[in-house]
């Protein structure tokens, strides 16, 4: 079963994005082909599932971040910008540079700063483990404009990757080939005041709003990864006759299949709510489920395949890369705190055919 990860072309992410943009498939993900109106859940789900069957994890990651987060954020804050037009058309790649030198889930502790003047801004700091940093054309940089952890102390800035003072270093890892993962150093990068997206102080509210859709995309993609891994393993086991007929093998496979189908059903149920209302509770629920389910399913698949999983582009590599579902966009442990914060509302939904109103008080 060595076909779980297709052959990797290091330039594939850029050429894939260019193709998706030129053929209108980027725009087609959004309502009325307008990114500011948000994603159409079924279209996003179908495109991510298609990409996952054809491309490696890094290439899909590159596209996923732009489809779910970078493009919608640009559309909301810079609708007339060259960056948005070029990214949607596939002419450019835009990176979301939020993670700082500290823990990724602790954004309020970031050290990257932006000095905002009447006619210019100056950005200084370091962003680490940024998808699309290498080969990217634009950087959506989250920075603080004043000290302290208050949520109004942060601002988005649109930075051209070619601006003086921008330095990008590729991350040294064999994983996520094609994702352009890198560290970004911003050394007194000076830009016009129009580089501020939205308005000063809206950084974290905008991040929270758009990370919800990124978590939805992650749920869709995680379900697709589980489906691909289980399908490949089923064929591999079937080719070995007696192995598939062993009760212990069938039991472990079935448990993984049940978990994968549960994740798929949860993503399908919550998709319209997250896409349409950016519901944080639903997004946290799906994010937590995706991280734990991928870990369970890929762990079982790797165990059942045994030593064969260590073949080039085999299951063990997919398992290692799929750990991103429990880290990117918020570690599972952190996201579970958000689930607990909304426990009463989420519990109330058990008794109704539809999710409870967002305005219902959580305690």
UniProtKB/TrEMBL annotation:
Residues 95-189 form the Acyl-CoA oxidase/dehydrogenase middle domain. SUPFAM superfamilies: Acyl-CoA dehydrogenase C-terminal domain-like, Acyl-CoA dehydrogenase NM domain-like. The keyword Flavoprotein applies. GO terms for biological process: fatty acid beta-oxidation using acyl-CoA dehydrogenase. Its cofactor is FAD. GO terms for cellular component: cytoplasm. Coiled coil: none annotated. Belongs to the acyl-CoA dehydrogenase family. This is Acyl-CoA dehydrogenase domain protein.
